[in-house]
Description:
Blueprint (H helix, E strand, L loop, with lengths): L1 H6 L2 H23 L1 H6 L1 H74 L9 H8 L4
Helix pairs in contact: 2-4
Amino acid sequence: MDEIMRRAPEWAVGAVVIFxxxxxxxxxxxxxxxxxxxxxxxxxxxxxxxxxxxxxIRIEQREARAADLEDMTRxxxxxxxxxxxxxxxxxxxxxxxxxxxxxHHDAELAAAAAGFESPAHLSLRQWRDVNGVxx
Length: 135
């Protein structure tokens, strides 16, 4: 290949480049224009059909991407709503647990002041162990 390139005259390389460029331009014109396709005969019609097939494939791919995007948007919206519900429930539960802990603490202080002994209370870890609940 190197020897061919060394022996080829410079004009031959330029001619090949021009030939390839003209071929690309003519093929593109035939793919996009019915007139050019007719002017180029069977080869032009073949290039035109190939251009139409590629255009149809691009349209189908665009529609598939749009459907996928719509589906992902719907899933995102559903998950965002579910997350809002979980967050709200968690905040309510956390608020109640703080209130409940204070109430029990105050009740224990009042019972101790009155001379009563409070029953044993399980910590969260102990309760999980007794009830078989994992984290």
